[in-house]
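Lab manual, section 2.4: Encoding a predicted structure.

Procedure: take the sequence of the chain (399 residues), apply the prediction step described in section 2.3, and record the output as structure tokens. A sample record is shown.
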Amino acid sequence: MKVLVVNSGSSSIKYQLFDMRDESVMARGIVERIGIPDSRLNHTPYGRDKVVIPADIPNHNVGIKMVMDALTHPEYGVIKDMSEIKAVGHRVVHGGEEFAGSVIINDDVIAAIERYADLAPLHNPPNLLGIKATMALMPGVPMVGVFDTAFHQTMPPRAYVYGLPYEYYEEHRIRRYGFHGTSHYYVAYRCAEILNKPIENLKIVTCHLGNGSSIAAVDGGKSVDTSLGFGTVCGVMMGTRAGDIDPAILLYLMEKFGMGENEIKTIIYKKSGFLGVSGISSDVRDVEEAAEKGDKRAELALEIFAYGIRKYIGAYAAAMGGLDAVVFTAGIGENSPVIRKKVCDGMEFFGIKLDDDRNAVRGKEAIISAEDSVTKVVVVPTNEELVIARDTMKLVGGR
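Recorded output:
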């Protein structure tokens, strides 16, 4: 069975085509700069060179059509006809409280995704554009929605209800939702496989660290808490996002400097984090390079980030009543030995003991803790697309 996975953003469409007989990737690519000058499709068939196709791509319908044409192209395509694709899995960021798992997309699901657009205005609308474009071009082919928020729907009320007047939750569903759920799910279960232990017996803290970051407490295979909340700015410091800050700061800025809503949004979402503290870049690689040269603000940015992660690991170990493993994933988690060492140093009292030689790994699965470390530390490259493909195949089955 062949499954196409689509991740549609506001100006891009990422895709992978899987052959689910062995879960191999037949092709992958990205449509870039939709509705913007210099738009193009980057298409890479498995085992072959990338093909760059410049074109005018005014909307998602044109972008999806280009993906289909690339997949079936006589020279660089990987299938003869689109009829070989039996289902399409779509990444959807926000499913609210309605979706605790993946679902086959129908009119009711589309309506629900539209309802939750207020909670994810930068993500749900473009997710929908990709869904509708694919449905129009592939009529009759089952579509599946896989939600970033779904994995965290197992959190207990004590973890997701805020200390606000309760009617805000009852009437407006203001609560902690959490994100990156597909990634946290994949790396937690993969960690259990690597350690050769039942996931039901493990208490794991998963650290999805990238330009956007979140930490999750996974107890017995279920998410019981996570650092991102109602929106995507809280938790640990990120590339340009502030992470946890006292909301009184925002009130002070509004009163002291007359800042409005848009200025506050710009500060906490786009001017903070690694960029704001270091004054250098939102990319941790640039910040690490500057820190190596003695830049004090760069050093401070790295310390703030690692310290925040360490605090969450401690808090979640307390919440779960124990800790068996810590998992690092995503761009920073998979590729920065510096950050992993900064996080783990000083946590020997938690049973965490890093092996510096093992920690030198980048972008590969590895146990990086010492042999005698009671709590295992594992690097697991995330694979959200594979989770989407698996869920899609499971739901459409023998259709």
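Check your result against the sample. The two ends are 10 Å apart (CA to CA).
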